[in-house]
Design goal:
By secondary structure, this protein is of the alpha/beta class. The chain has helices at residues 7-22, 30-38, 70-80, 99-106, 118-131, 166-170; strands at 59-62, 65-67, 89-93, 110-115, 135-139, 152-157, 172-183, 188-196, 199-208. The termini are far apart.
């Protein structure tokens, strides 16, 4: 697969990914399915790993980080889209490869993405620009969000926190949604936090495993 250079062949792999990994597991939002079909996931991976781009698992992108399993990206995006309209600015915490940010942008969000590792941030910034996705990529502590760009209608966190970061919840606008894995370093529960007129409402959306969210309101760096 690593030798594929035919865009039609990559598109066929994306179609199979959407059908077998995403629709089959219950993600039905047409905006998400369309984005997953259009965003070229293989372009966000190192050349050596592109043959795994559309497989049903996370893939290493270097520096101890991964690009999340396609289904998880789709599920988190679908949850972000349940924010109360109008859907405008979204915060992507843990830029990594830039793929989640691209999917959010393809769904119509104006995306700010924050990554603590400068090299990963620069690589993602280049890839997103080459593909035409207008995403603002910043370097910083994602557990603290981006207060100067808040409020956000949706915040998606691609790393696991020991508890819901208060700084991120506070950066939601009324009706906004925060999607974050919460739990131990080894196993988490995908948690949805909604900002309502009466405060924050927490929902559980299933088990998951992510790399740790390192930062002031996450895990200490080892």
């Amino acid at each position: 697969m690593s030798g594929i250079d035919d865009e039609a062949a990559w598109a066929a792999l994306r179609e199979r990914m959407v059908r077998d990994q995403i629709e089959a597991r219950g993600v039905a939002d047409p905006r998400v399915l369309d984005a997953m079909r259009r965003v070229p996931r293989h372009r966000f991976l190192p050349a050596r790993a592109r043959e795994e781009a559309y497989d049903d698992h996370p893939v290493s992108i270097g520096e101890g980080q991964t690009i999340s399993q396609p289904f998880i990206v789709a599920e988190m995006t679908a949850l972000a889209l349940t924010a109360a309209p109008p859907l405008r600015r979204a915060l992507d915490v843990g830029t990594g490869s830039g793929y989640q940010a691209a999917v959010l942008a393809a769904c119509g969000f104006d995306v700010v993405s924050v990554e603590r590792r400068a090299e990963l941030a620069e690589r993602a910034r280049r890839t997103l620009a080459e593909l035409g996705y207008r995403v603002e990529v910043r370097v910083g502590d994602g557990s603290l969000g981006c207060p100067d760009a808040a409020p956000f209608c949706a915040i998606v966190v691609a790393a696991a926190a020991p508890a819901v970061p208060a700084a991120l919840a506070e950066q939601l606008r009324p009706g906004g949604v925060l999607v974050v894995p919460v739990g131990s370093r080894g196993l988490q529960e995908l948690t949805v936090v909604r900002r309502t007129p009466d405060g924050f409402v927490h929902e559980r959306a299933g088990g998951c495993v992510f790399v740790p969210l390192v930062g002031e309101q996450g895990w200490p760096e080892r």
